Amino acid sequence: MSSNLSRILDSVDPFIGTAATDLPAAQGLAASWWWPKAQVGNTHPGACYPLGMVSACACSGAYPTGYGLYGISTEGAPTPMYDDYLASGFTHFQQSGTGAIRKYYNYFRVTPMIEPLDALGNRWKLEEEEASPGYYAATLENGIRCELTVGAKTAVHRYTFPESSSSRVVLDFSYGGLAIEHGTTVPLRAGIESLGQGCAQGTVVMEGIPLSVYIDTDAPGWRQLVWYDRRRVDGGTRLDFDYIRRTTLRPFGLMFMGPTRAGQVVEIRMGFSMRGTEQARRNLEQALPGEAGFDQALADTREAWSDYFSQVEVQGGTGERRQVFATSLYHSLIKPCFAQDESPFWPSKGPFVFDIATMWDMYKTQFPLLTALNPAKGADMMEAIVRIAEEEGNLPIGYRMARGSDRFFRQASALAHTVLADGFQLGLEGPEWDWALVHMQDDLRRGYGEDYTERGIVHPISHTLDLATGYWCTAIIARGLGDLRLADELEAKSRHWINAFGPDGLLRDSSFYEGGRWNYSFRLLHDMASRIELAGGDKEFTSILDRFFGFGADPVVQLGTPPFGTEFAIGLDLDRFEGLNNEPDMEAPWAYHYAGRPDRTAEIVHAALSYQFGTGRGGLPGNDDSGALSSWYVWASLGLFPVAGQNLFLVNAPAFAEAQLRFGGNDFEVVTTGHVEAGIGEDARGYPPQYVQSARFNGKPLDQSFITGNQLHGGGRLEIELGAEPSDWATKTRPPSASDRTDLARDAGARFQEFLP
Questions:
Q1: Do both 273 and 342 map to the same domain?
Q2: Boundaries of each Glycosyl hydrolase family domain copy (predicted)?
Q3: Four-point Cα dihedral 382, 387, 388, 393, nearest 10
Q4: pLDDT attached to residue 740
Q5: What is the DSSP letter of 377?
Q6: What is the DSSP annotation of 177-230?
Q7: How many domains does the chain have?
Q8: Could you tell me if 345 and 211 lie in one domain?
Q9: Does one domain contain both 176 and 115?
Q10: CB contact set of 554 (below 8 Å; sequence gap of 6+)
């Protein structure tokens, strides 16, 4: 590991986003943006393996990850549940940065204690917290030092005890979920067995998932036993529950106990599987063979994180900006969870991916980043998505570790189509593309799709845009596979997006999920040229965007803690950009590129990077949404932005002087001249945005504001000259639109060829 890489990895702060938003007062353009949604990142600082199946963290039962202070929050500043950071133990399988997704995990709670078993469930104050990639530690107020690390399918707990005549490590198999109303999880069935010699195993069925664990502890001489309803089952070695009801549930689990001298260390090694205890044991033994324990597990996980961080190196930037960037990259790689050969629903081997918990956000920024950094993982994800459709009947809108949990069509439709279209155009191997095409066609008629087919428009109106995009993406694959007739039919239906817009250049009145028609009106459609003409042309479209982003508007006052007064209605009436607090807005700044105004994009992105993200627990403007928001920050800082489903990356002024990237397995370099370092928050004052003056790609002039995904993945050198004033760069040649194509260029790749340098 280079010293530069080590510095970047070590600057990650997993505590960013774990508390209510606490950013310096925004200045200039950013001061006019109004944020209605919950002002908290909803992340956790627990130990995570990159894209791994397992995480481990202190658990207070707070919303939504189990860590922290807050109850459920949907608008404004979150309301605390607790006065301090507390933990009743340490749980596994946390979400990351989500909102109200209704599946909260936190299974297999492990609690080190010197108190009687009756105290199980108490919450101890957390002191001396530490966190870094793959590592979390804290000291409980009873004096026990607690350290956690994880592998892809394993966890290791290390506890350092004070002197005690009766110390214990208690594993609660009955606990799950959160300490909020309707937040608990009740196991349906369970079985636990103490195997002797520090070993035990068990399975619980939570949310329809048979989740198994194999446990190995290094505490020689300690007793081990099962317990039920906070009472030891003396002489018992197993518990079996064939059917548990919420009204009959009593706590149950395993316990290791014995005397400790001051400073005595006990390690608990845990292997997990969704396919039984035998596979859980194999997973543990494969990851940590022989006597390998905590130190080896942590070293392996740090190496896995280093492999990813070695692919994204930046030069320049203040310490705070680099810390936010590094932490954003870290948060981008926690989800989704890859669990090879672990599907509990179908018996065959192969990729299995879950915790695609907020696909309506992840598909825009996070999936393109994952696929760029690890194309094989991206291909596995696509193969898993197609397999979900094959086995369960639909392409997922989201997918979590729960049976039947995601028939969630309120937020969006046909999102997997964008991911698959990008993968196909990149030439990724893994999915059977002809089979994927079959499922993509079928899926377009599910949910709101039937009405779309019959009437060419559906409400909520944003689903009209989703489905139109889905038809376009499906047509790309059909044409690439040689089915030209089908591609023409699909493309014809993809033009129905036009029915969603009214004469004012905005979406028609409708119901909207977590937003309004202004938020959803500026997504990057596959035919932006026609969409701009619909609004009256470049000037009129730019004028509408300027109003949305608050150019020339007065500063606004953000919401405080609920309940609200008139300020909420006043804020909604602004119809204003919500400053990365709300995900439908994430791609809107780049809509200016299509109207020949990349200077406006530069101004908005500069303001967002300067004032919407910061260091410390309150450093995120809103939910991280499984890493989608953090991925936005990574792309924006690099001066790039993916247009999902179109194999396209828009170019903007980077926030760093240089970046060396390993994308698609090849080296991609971003180099600037004229770059001026700017800080964040208070340190951003006095630093106006910079604008692209000219660009070159692989030594040739780049007169347009984009490159293709194939160019990005193929490697190269992007040189960008920056200046203090807007220029005419990329004002004439626009990013490609569906209506730009001719009948002679009707394959998925040819539509970009005329724009290549």
A1: no
A2: 279-723
A3: 130
A4: 86
A5: H
A6: B-SSTT-B---SEEEEEEEETTEEEEEEEETTEEEEEEEEE--TT-EEEEEETT
A7: 2
A8: no
A9: yes
A10: 32
SS3 track for 513-541: CCCCHHHHCCCCCCCHHHHHHHCCCHHHH
Going by C-alpha positions, the residue among 523, 520, 503 that lies closest to residue 511 is: 520
Model pLDDT, residue 407: 55
pLDDT of residue 314: 96
Residue 310 near residue 1 (C-beta atoms within 8 A): yes
With beta carbons less than 8 A apart as the criterion, state whether 585 and 519 touch. Answer: yes
Task: Name the pLDDT band for 741 (thresholds 50, 70, 90).
Answer: low
Residues 6+ apart with CB under 8 A from 216: 198, 199, 268, 269, 270, 284
Does any domain span residue 564? no
Question: What are the helix (H) ranges across 550-596?
Answer: 566-572
Give bridge partners of residue 694 from the DSSP assignment: 721
Which residues span the domain enclosing 171? 38-292
Please indicate, yes or no, if residue 245 is contained in any of the structural domains.
yes
Both 60 and 112 in one domain: the answer is yes
Tokens of 256: 């290791």
Residue 713, pLDDT score = 98
The pLDDT of residue 408 is: 61
Are 635 and 651 in contact, with CB atoms under 8 Å apart? no
> Do residues 246 and 356 both lie within one domain?
no
Which helix (H) or strand (E) element contains residue 57? strand 55-59
Q: Which residue type is seen at 750?
A: A
Residues 6 or more apart whose CB falls under 8 angstroms from that of 641 comprise 365, 587, 590, 635, 649, 650, 652
250, 358: one domain: no
Label residue 748 by pLDDT band (50, 70, 90): very low
Sign, CA torsion 577/581/586/589:
positive
Residues 6+ apart with CB under 8 A from 607: 26, 28, 29, 30, 689
Whether residue 751 is predicted with pLDDT greater than 70 in this model: the reply is no
- CATH no. for residue 385? 1.20.1050.60
100 has a pLDDT exceeding 70: yes
Per-chain mean pLDDT for the chain: 94
What would the pLDDT profile of 404-431 be if each residue is shown by its tens digit? 755 566 789 999 999 999 999 999 998 9
pTM (predicted TM-score): 0.96
CATH number for 269:
2.70.98.10
Asked whether 497 and 468 are in contact (CB, 8 A), the reply is yes
Q: State the distance between the two ends of the chain, measured CA to CA, in whole angstroms.
A: 35
pLDDT at position 743 over 60:
no
The pairing of beta strand 312-315 with beta strand 145-150: unpaired
Statement: residue 747 has pLDDT above 50: no
Instruction: Tell me the chain's radius of gyration from C-alpha atoms.
Output: 26
- Residues ≥6 apart with Cβ < 8 Å to 532: 538, 541, 594, 595
Asked if pLDDT for residue 749 goes beyond 70, the answer is no
Query: Which of 440, 464, 494 lies at the terminal end of a domain, its last residue?
Result: 494
Burial of 554 (0-12, 13-18, 19+ CB in 10 A): exposed
Residue 130 lies in a domain: yes
- Residue 657 resides in a domain: no
Neighbours of 628 (CB within 10 A): 26
Q: Which residues share a beta bridge with 673? A: 721
Same domain flag for 362 and 450: yes
pLDDT, tens only, 45-90: 999 999 999 999 999 999 999 999 999 999 999 999 999 999 999 9
Same domain, 478 and 389: yes
Q: Which of 494, 518, 548 is the last residue of a domain?
A: 494
Residue 486: pLDDT over 70: yes
Distance separating alpha carbons of residues 322 and 241, to the nearest angstrom: 51
Segment 470-482 mean pLDDT: 98
Confidence of residue 517 (pLDDT cuts 50, 70, 90): very high
**Mean per-residue pLDDT for 154-177?**
97
SS3 668: strand
